[in-house]
Amino acid sequence: MLTDVRGRASIASLAGSDSLHLHLLGYGPNTVAFGDLAKSENRIVLTAAAFPLNEVVISANRWEQEADRVPDQITVIKPRDIVFNNPGTAADMLQQTGEVFMQKSQLGGGSPMLRGFAANRVLIVVDGVRMNNAIYRAGNLQNVISADPYALERAEVIHGPGAMTYGSDAIGGVMDFHLLSPKFSADSTLLFRGGAAARYGSAASEYGGHLDLGLGGRKLAFVGSASFTRFGDLRMGTQGPDDYLRPWYSEVINGADSMVINSDPELQVGSAYDNMNFMGKLAYRPVASLEIGANFYYSTTSDVPRYDRLIELRNDAPRSAEWYYGPQDWLMGSLRIQHQAKRGPWSTARLTVAYQDYEESRNDRNFGNSRLRTQAEQVSGIWGNLDLQKDLGLARNCSMEPSSSPTT
């Protein structure tokens, strides 16, 4: 006899029995005399049992596997780690693991390095879609800040080459971001969930906020999130190297570039910027074995000053009056179809088609020169991937409902 989702069951057909034997995964067995049910108002309490579960990860093989079967070193970042460390950007989140070196030439920077490789030699993947494209140069990049750390369900860093699985650019490693996914309701009730966060950082007079909401029915589910962060000018520590002090800064006064004395040299004037991230996902499950999802992502920044160039001198005068990256815009829409079958050419099939649009620029102007040099980059592309898996052993249960084994 099985209970419903609320643990209720009719025992009328068992009238006359001596006792009831109850078993439930995660709880110890219990035996109750049939005559004692009336004394407990037909309620039976089960005691939770401790039992081991093998850790499961999404590995470089693109499918769930037990951790002891994965040959690569993988760093897993969970939402509780993000909440505890309270990172400002995805670059800060990776750096806080202690497993990824992050090069930052400015407050709005963050170029990850894995096993000595960086820039277009490491791959960024968001929900199974690669972000790297033709404008990813060999020099340091900060495109990883386009991923919203507060909308993450899980992030994984695969250390070592993964080019055979993920394609080009995955030479030094892969940073795989899994953002919040829609959750379906187990019964006819409407599932509602949400989260919010606020952040303030005194080092850069930084403040930001995050909001995510999710709705789920038996066949249709949605989740959306939005984050905004405003970073002010960064204040360096009193014990930091003098090379990064800001004793002066450049400012246009009466139409001419002027070198202005900074009354607070530890305040890195000209390092402030803004960052915004938006995401929406809609999923449809007509039957238990088929799920169709449509996803939307958008991330943008304000102008991001290149601080290390703004503090350079040439002939005792500032070398650059302006040096900044233009808004870093990233737009992606994707369609994802996943199917599970008991028989046929595959056990699990996953098709993903995505469209991405990038736009960014580099801008600089020499001190005392009115000419602003701009190098603008814009690229659009269509990405597609089909993964097929066939189980040659026992037939699997044709269901996409969450299993009892947790994923990490």
Short structural summary:
This protein has 408 residues and is mainly beta.
Task: Provide a descriptive summary of the structure in words.
By secondary structure, this protein is mainly β. It has two domains: about 1-50, no CATH class; about 50-390, Beta Complex (Ferric Hydroxamate Uptake Protein, Chain A, domain 1). About 5% of the residues lie in helices and about 45% in strands. It is built from four helices and 28 strands. It has helices spanning about 80-85, 90-95, 165, 305-310, and strands spanning about 20-25, 25-35, 55-60, 65, 75, 100-105, 110-115, 115-120, 120-125, 130, 150-160, 175-180, 190-200, 205-215, 220-230, 235, 250-255, 255-260, 265-270, 275-285, 290-300, 305, 315, 315-320, 320-325, 330-340, 350-365, 375-390. Strands 13, 14, 15, 20, 21, 22, 25, 26, 27 and 28 form a ten-stranded antiparallel beta sheet that branches. It has a five-stranded mixed beta sheet with strand order 5-11-12-9-10. A three-stranded antiparallel beta sheet has the order 6-7-8. The longest helix is centred in the N-terminal third of the chain and has 7 residues, at about 80-85. It is elongated and about 100 Å long.
